[in-house]
Amino acid sequence: MNENRRKFLKLTGLAALGAATGKFANVFAKEKLIRISSLDITGKKQTTSIGVDSKKRWAMVIDLKKCLVEEGCTKCVNTCHKIHNVPDFENPKDEIKWIWKEPYEQAFLDQENYYQKDNLKDKPVPIFCNHCDNPPCVRVCPTEATWKREDGIVMMDWHRCIGCRYCMAACPYGSRSFNWRDPRPFIKDIDPDFPTRTKGVVEKCTFCDERIAKGQQPACVEACTEKAMNFGDLNDPESNVRELLKENFSIRRKPELGTNPEIYYLV
Amino acid sequence: MLEYALKGTKKYWGWIFFLSLIIFVGVLFYLKQFGYGLGITGLSRNVTWGFYIAQFTFLVGVAASGVMVVLPYYLHNYKAFGKITILGEFLAIASVMMCMLFVFVDMGQPLRLINVFLYPSPHSLMFWDIMVLSGYLSLNVLISHVTLEAERKSIPPPKWIRPIIILSIPWAISIHTVTAFLYSGLAARPFWMTAILAPRFLASAFSSGPALLLIMVFIIRKLTKFDPGEEPIRKLAIIITYAMCANVFFILMEFFTAFYSSIPEHIMHFQYLFFGLEGHTTLVPWMWTSALLAVISLVFLLNPKTRNNNKILVVVCAAIFISIWIDKGLGMVVTGFIPTPLGDVVDYIPTIPETLISLSIWAIGFFLITVFYKIALSVRRELLT
After folding, report:
1. Is the domain defined by B2-206+216-379 classed in CATH 1.20.1630.10?
2. Are strands A58-63 and A263-266 parallel, antiparallel or unpaired?
3. What gap in Å lies between CA B77 and CA B61, rounded to an integer?
4. Is CB count within 10 Å lower at the N or C end of chain B?
5. Which residues on A lie below 8 Å from B109 (Cβ)?
6. How many residue pairs bridge chain A and chain B with CB atoms within 8 Å of each other?
7. What is the CATH number of domain A58-266?
8. Could you report the per-residue pLDDT of A232-264, keeping only the tens digit for each?
9. Domain spans of chain A?
C-alpha cells in the first residue's frame, strides 16, 4: 500500500509540474495582459480577440451639466440592464448592477470641495466600470477570466470565472457584481440576443463590446437623450472624446491609485 | 500506519462519532449552498468576503506556526522538542486541509477550480497562494510520514529528508506572507494595504498556533501516557510570549500610523472595529474582547510565576487563541470592505448555514488531528490501552 501511494504521489506531482511549466512559458511570453489564446476541444489554438481594433482606445466622457436635466432620469440604466439581461432582485444583498447613479459626493469621495453650488453636491452621477488602463481586477484574477482587450475594454469570461471574487475586492470603484443566486428567474423579459449568467460568477459592464463589434455605440450612450454621454477613441486626436477633453476641465474617479480609469467626467 | 487509527477505546470512537455528526450536518448545508449559491451566506455586493475567507486566513497562520517547533528541533538540534515536533507537523497538515476546504466552500463555481491550473496566472497572488499551500501540504505530509515511519522501525530517518525539512522552514514563512500579500497588494482597500500586514500575520500566527499546540499537548498528556516533559512546555510558552509581544506591538503601530496621520480612509476602518461607524457596531464588543484578552494574557505571560504555572498557562493559551481568532477570523477580512469604496457602511453577519458549514470544516480539522495524533502515539506505544 505504501509503495502504491508513493508511486501515485510521484506521478501526480510530476504531471502537475509538467503542466505548470508549459503554461508558465506561455504566460511570460506575452508582453501585456491580453487574452491568452486558449485551446478549444479540438486542440486548435483560438484567440477570442475577434473584431478588436488594437489601434483604438475606447473611452467615455460624461458631461454632468447635461446629465439629469430631467429629474430622476435613469434611461441609461434601464436600457443597459434590459438588453444585458441584468436581473432585478428585491433583496439588496443579492443586487447586481452594471451602471447606476450615485450622489456626486460618493462617486467622488476624494473630491472634498466645500461650498460648491448646491446643484453639484447631491447630483446623481452615472457610474460603471472604468475600463482602467491598468486594471487591478485583471491583475488579481487567478484564471484570466477577466482581461483587458487591445482596445482597452476590460472583458469578462462568464464561463471561466470560478467565483472567487478577488476582482471585487481589488476594484476601487465597486463596479463589479456577483451572482449570489440563480439570476434567471429575476429577469423580467429575457433578451435572447444576449447571454444570461449563471449563479456563482462575477459580472460587470463590458462597454457593450457586442455593439462595438457591429460598429454601434454603447447602449447607454444611445439611450441618453441629453447627449451627456460621449463614447469614442482616445487614440484619435480628432475624435469627439479628445475634443471634449481638450475644451473642458475633466475629473476621473480615484486616478491617484494608478489605475488610469478611462471614464472622464466634465463638471 | 493508518491501521492504528482503526483501533481505539470507546472514548476515541465516541469523539470520532461526535465530530462525524457535525461534519455530516455541515455537508448537508453545503449541498444546500451548492444548489442555491453563495447567497445563502451573509455576504453581499459590498462585503464579498467574510467568514470563510477569514477562517482560511487564520488557519494559514496555524499551519505556518508548525515551524516554531520544526525550526528549533531540526535547525538548532533542540532535542527537547523531539516529542512534540511531529504534533506540530500534523497540526500544520490538518490546518492546511482546513484552509483548502474554506477556499473551496467560498467559490461561486467550485467545479471550475481546475481553471486555476489550466490557466496559471502568475500575476495573481491567489495563484501563488494555492501553489505555496499545496507545496507546504506536500512537504509536511512527506516529512511526517518519513520521520514517523523511521521511528516505527526504530531507525534514524534517511539522510535525504533533512534538506527537505530545512526547506519546509522558509516555506512555512512563505505561506503566511503570500496570504498577507493577497490583501496588502490591493490599492482599493486601505485597511489591508499596509506593509506590516505580513509581519503582523506571522507574529499573530506564531502566538496563536503554538498556543493551540500547547493546549493539545496538555489534553493528550491527560488522556494518554504521552509526556513530553516540562522543558518543551516552558519553551513553547516563551515562544508564545515573544510572538504575542510582537503582535501587539505591530497592532499599536497600525493605530499610530492611522490616527496620527489622520487620513480619513485609514482611520475609518479602525473606528468601525473599535467604536462603530454611523451606528454600525457589530464588531465593537468582539474587538474589545479581543484587545482585553490580548492584554490580560500578555500580563500573565510576561510574569514568570504565572507563565510557569501550567494551570494558568493553559487558560492563557486559550485566551490568546480566542483573541487572535477574533482579530483575524472575524475582524480583519470584513473590515477591509467597510466602509465600501463608495463610502457606505454595510453590515455583514454570517448566516446559520454559513456558520454550520464553517463549524463542519473545523470538525474535519479536529477529526484529522485526532486520527494523526492517534497514529503518532500508537507508533510510540504511548497509549493507555
Report:
1. yes
2. parallel
3. 24
4. C
5. 161-163, 198, 200-201
6. 159
7. 3.30.70.20
8. 999 999 999 999 999 999 999 999 999 999 999
9. 2-46, 58-266
Q: B98 pLDDT exceeds 60?
A: yes
Considering chain B, what percentage of its residues have pLDDT values greater than 70? 99
Residue of chain A whose Cα is closest to the Cα of B104: A164
Q: Contact, B253 vs B270, CB < 8 A?
A: no
**A258 contacts in B (CB within 8 Å)?**
187
ipTM of the complex: 0.92
CA distances from B28 to A136, B107, B359, B362 (A): 37, 17, 13, 15
Phi, psi (deg, nearest 5) at residue A126: -70, 125
**Sequence-separated (6 or more) residues with CB below 8 Å from residue B225:** B382, B383, B384
From CA B168, how far away is CA B251, in angstroms rounded?
28
Predicted TM-score (pTM) of the model is 0.90
Chain B residues lying within 8 Å of A173, measured CB to CB: 188, 341
The grid coordinates of residue B245 equal 509581544
**DSSP state at residue A124:** E
Tell me, what DSSP letter sits at residue A122? T
CB contact under 8 Å between A160 and B340, yes or no, is: no
DSSP-based three-state secondary structure for A191: coil
Q: Which of B41, B186, B266 to mutate to test the interface with A (most CBs of A within 10 A)?
A: B186
